[in-house]
């Protein structure tokens, strides 16, 4: 049933949609259109109906779809909406995660509320109502090429809102009409260009990329934290973080990463018996992670612009009396950004895997036993964890091949160049999850190394995260299954990263005031 809006966080639709809001939309949330939004949606709807009724050609409303644009569409608006959705129900593969689909509904809602798509106010209300519940359409993974929007996946989403197909209510997958009834929602009725406006945008692409970005931002913080803990546990000197050195490098984000590592290592006491120069997996962390920060910053700007824009065709400008046909459903910007996220995640994964290898190697780990086993041979420490980490990195490397340049003509050569942004974004989201597993694996090794070394890190920030890991994960003695504990360690890092991000934001606010 519908949840009480007073008990849910309220997010005004007049503001800017962010990746963090997308992540929040995985759970019930109250989006509030407000009077200004409602007015511009209604005014655009009136203008759209006027344009459709005065003999003006309006793609997809008075015409066929895609290469059939030269043929007339259905005379009846409701039948035209049925036609728009039915021919697109051809997707394949496993269902997308409900969090991605709900994020896509939020992105679509934000775009429609710009008042350029000509939808009925009832569409806006229906999307808001669905997002106030745990309702999520069941949408197959494969179908979109991201060139005329995410047509096929969004068609499944729109049909589920009408009570057709399947949907999730919480974790339960059931027929969509039953999910609507149990959620206290009414099936959505469509007319005019409502159906085309629901499907003619790259909302799945934007949602998946936005969720990947949020996860990778946390993983960036986790990488800094784990790199600092590794440096501390090895007893390495932090000379490679000298401000003068990084300033000469010329990359501000590398300076930022070095400063963050110095902060985490404040109070550290080097052992004095390490080599003059550490392996690159320690010494070059500010350069590597600084480059990752630069890439995440670029992707954030592109994805943010996409979330703030209108993805549809045609667009309606009542104030100018203009129906503008074009390509604002072409997902190339986010396709490039998502591929960059995948590449960035993979190199961060390479770093984590090499840091794990450094910790388990008795020739380089500062005197700790091989594989971090308490009784080597009789016990095997984190050997299985390292094997799984290696397999994960191999998968990430294969998946890092860019999707955004794999253009294939389709749709009768109407879509003769396509960006495949949906596949790029979904891959980036999967890469973000794999990186979490790698960081969880490294964190389990860090926790075990702290147990075997018998000392608490001298740097307070490192000690804090190690204490959190110790509280969540017992030492590996004797051997036991560690799959669940790798994921638990990733959760600990996520929470630590959230706290760090909150503290940094508060500190920045103080400095700016």
Description:
It is a single chain. This protein is mainly alpha-helical and 513 residues long. The protein is built from 18 helices and nine strands. Helix 14 (332-360) runs antiparallel to helix 15 (383-399). It is elongated and about 85 Å long. 50% of the residues are buried.
Short note summarizing the structure:
By secondary structure, this protein is mainly α. It has helices at 19-24, 34-53, 77-86, 98-112, 121-131, 151-161, 176-183, 194-199, 203-234, 243-249, 252-265, 280-283, 285-308, 332-360, 383-399, 421-453, 460-472, 483-512, and strands at residues 10-12, 30-32, 92-95, 135-137, 140-142, 166-169, 172-175, 315-317, 322-324. Helix 13 runs antiparallel to helix 14 (332-360).
Looking at this protein, list some descriptive labels.
513 residues, mainly alpha, 3-stranded antiparallel beta sheet, two-stranded parallel sheet, 18 helices, 9 strands
Task: Indicate the topology.
Elements: E1 10-12, H1 19-24, E2 30-32, H2 34-53, H3 77-86, E3 92-95, H4 98-112, H5 121-131, E4 135-137, E5 140-142, H6 151-161, E6 166-169, E7 172-175, H7 176-183, H8 194-199, H9 203-234, H10 243-249, H11 252-265, H12 280-283, H13 285-308, E8 315-317, E9 322-324, H14 332-360, H15 383-399, H16 421-453, H17 460-472, H18 483-512
Parallel strand pairs: 1-2
Antiparallel strand pairs: 3-5, 4-6, 6-7, 8-9
């Amino acid at each position: 049933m519908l949840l009480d809006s007073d008990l849910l966080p309220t997010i005004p639709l007049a503001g800017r949609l962010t990746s963090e809001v997308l992540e929040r939309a995985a759970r019930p949330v109250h989006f509030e259109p407000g009077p200004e939004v409602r007015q511009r949606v209604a005014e655009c709807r009136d203008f759209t109906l006027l344009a459709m009724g005065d003999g003006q050609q309006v793609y997809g409303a008075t015409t066929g779809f895609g290469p059939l644009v030269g043929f007339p569409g259905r005379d009846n608006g409701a039948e035209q909406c049925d036609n728009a959705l039915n021919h697109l129900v051809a997707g394949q593969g496993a269902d997308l995660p409900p969090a991605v689909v709900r994020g896509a509904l939020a992105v679509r809602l934000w775009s429609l509320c710009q008042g350029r798509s000509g939808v009925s106010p009832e569409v806006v209300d229906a999307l808001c109502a669905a997002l106030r519940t745990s309702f999520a359409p069941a949408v197959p993974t494969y179908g979109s090429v991201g060139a005329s929007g995410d047509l096929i996946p969004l068609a499944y989403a729109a049909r589920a809102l009408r009570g057709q197909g399947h949907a999730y209510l919480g974790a339960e997958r059931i027929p969509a009409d039953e999910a609507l009834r149990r959620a206290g929602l009414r099936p959505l009725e469509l007319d005019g260009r409502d159906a085309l406006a629901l499907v003619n945008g790259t909302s799945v692409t934007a949602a998946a990329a936005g969720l990947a970005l949020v996860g990778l931002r946390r993983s960036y913080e986790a990488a800094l934290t784990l790199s600092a803990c590794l440096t501390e546990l090895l007893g390495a000197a932090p000379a490679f973080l000298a401000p003068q050195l990084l300033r000469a490098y010329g990359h501000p984000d590398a300076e930022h990463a070095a400063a963050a590592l110095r902060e985490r290592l404040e109070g550290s006491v080097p052992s004095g018996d390490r080599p003059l120069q550490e392996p690159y997996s320690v010494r070059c962390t500010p350069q590597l992670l600084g480059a990752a920060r630069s890439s995440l910053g670029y992707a954030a700007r592109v994805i943010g612009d996409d979330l703030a824009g209108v993805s549809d065709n045609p667009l309606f400008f009542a104030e100018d009396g203009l129906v503008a046909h074009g390509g604002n459903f072409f997902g190339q910007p986010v396709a490039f950004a998502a591929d960059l996220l995948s590449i960035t995640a993979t190199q961060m994964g390479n770093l984590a895997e090499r840091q794990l290898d450094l910790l388990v190697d008795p020739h380089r780990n500062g005197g700790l036993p091989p594989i971090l086993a308490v009784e080597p041979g009789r016990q095997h420490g984190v050997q299985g964890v390292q094997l799984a980490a290696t397999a994960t990195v191999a998968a990430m490397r294969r998946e890092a091949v860019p999707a955004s340049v794999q253009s294939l003509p389709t749709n009768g050569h109407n879509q003769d160049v396509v960006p495949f942004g949906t596949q790029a974004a979904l891959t980036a989201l999967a890469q973000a999850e794999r990186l979490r597993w790698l960081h969880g694996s490294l964190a389990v090794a860090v926790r075990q190394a702290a147990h075997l070394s018998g000392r608490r890190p001298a740097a307070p920030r490192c000690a804090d995260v190690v204490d959190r890991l110790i509280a969540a994960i017992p030492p590996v003695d004797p051997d036991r299954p560690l799959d669940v504990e790798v994921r638990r360690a990733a959760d600990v890092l996520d929470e630590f990263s959230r706290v760090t991000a909150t503290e940094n934001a508060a500190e920045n606010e103080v400095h700016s005031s």
